[in-house]
Amino acid sequence: MTPGSPELPGVSEVLEDGVAAGVAPAASAAVRLQGELVHLEFRGAAELEPARRELEGRDLFDLASLTKALATATAAALLVKENRLSLEAPVARYLPGFEAAGKEAVTVRHLLAHSSGLPAWRPYYERARADAAAGPAFLEPGRRPPALAAAFARGRALVREAVCQEPLEAPAGTRAVYGDPGFLALGFALENVLGAPLDAFFAKRVARPLGLSDTFFVDEARRGEGVAAGRRFAATERCEHRGEVNCGSVNDDNAYAVGGVAGHAGLFGTAADVSRLAQVWLDALAGRPGILDGAVAGEFARRDDTPGSTRALGWDTPTPGRSTVGSLLGRGPRGAIGHLGYTGCSLWLDLDRGLACVLLTNHVHPTGRRPAELLRFRQRFHDAVGEALGL
User: Fold this and answer.
1) pLDDT, tens digit, for every residue of 203-237?
2) Model pTM score
3) Closest Cα to residue 276, out of 349, 197, 325?
4) Domain that holds residue 135
5) Which residue blocks in the chain are alpha helix, DSSP H?
6) What is the DSSP letter of 314?
7) Could you tell me if 100 and 87 lie in one domain?
8) 270, 96 contact by CB (below 8 A)
9) In 3-state terms, what secondary structure has residue 149?
10) Phi, psi dihedral angles at 378 (to 5 degrees)
């Protein structure tokens, strides 16, 4: 347990057991109830390779797909409130060229709800890796050129082109399949609306007003500079085609190919900061003032009406019997919204109780995933929180 930090009985034991069992080398958790931080801790090893290094309180985790909810959906909600973005508008209005391959009818709402008909995943990074101009970014660290801005700019152009050319697997609005290509497209579209990179908008309109000094994107062309200078990170996967253990570099290859700032991945942060950003959504949904509009937040938190979907706009909702949220959270009439991240991170908001549960791990470090064990660990964590709070 972190000295001097608030603690819920039984929660630390779950994290200790998970780290000891090898579910993840490191774990950090933050819990907020009605705006008050009631639990905060970190434990384990930030790195096992190339050498063991213990986790410290401000070490940053790769938040992976939590980026979709915390950065991209938050940015979209702000732009909707300002009437600069319409949920019902075709994506091609904001991302010219996206209409190719039969995507004329795909709307912003479809992308946010994962109901566009796009595939779940594509290895777009392979185009960048094979390209003469973008490929140097994928060389082993000792062989990479010192300046990579041009390589990542080329990679970004290649991935954007690939996303725009991607055909649908099903008509828009007929199915919900969680995936990354739609949020890659959404990130590109938002940047066109903003006239600025997504990381700059997030820093100016979200992180700075909220005082989130430990949550930001890492610009791969300037890794080790700017906000990332001097910071420590929890390591993720050993990446054979980059020739390194990812640490302070985004784990997701498609996000790496575009330079680390993408609509689907790229955000780094601490459990404490993530809980504060989660509180912004809880405040808006409870009608309290903040950077988000309550009505817009309510629309984003409503489960989409695509047949069979559990998705909201940029968020997920619990799947009965199989959700990582466990058996105690989200049982009230308003339910819960949340999101998971491939690296082992999760965030769930119980809307009736005003409860935010953040669990960050580097589960994939150094060699991959054990999804069944991670599912049970996440469920145990959320049930321990619920039991400690008497839910």
Assistant:
1) 999 999 999 999 999 999 998 888 999 999 999 99
2) 0.98
3) 349
4) 68-210
5) 11-20, 66-67, 74-81, 108-112, 125-130, 149-165, 181-194, 198-202, 208-210, 253-257, 271-285, 294-301, 371-388
6) S
7) yes
8) no
9) helix
10) -60, -45
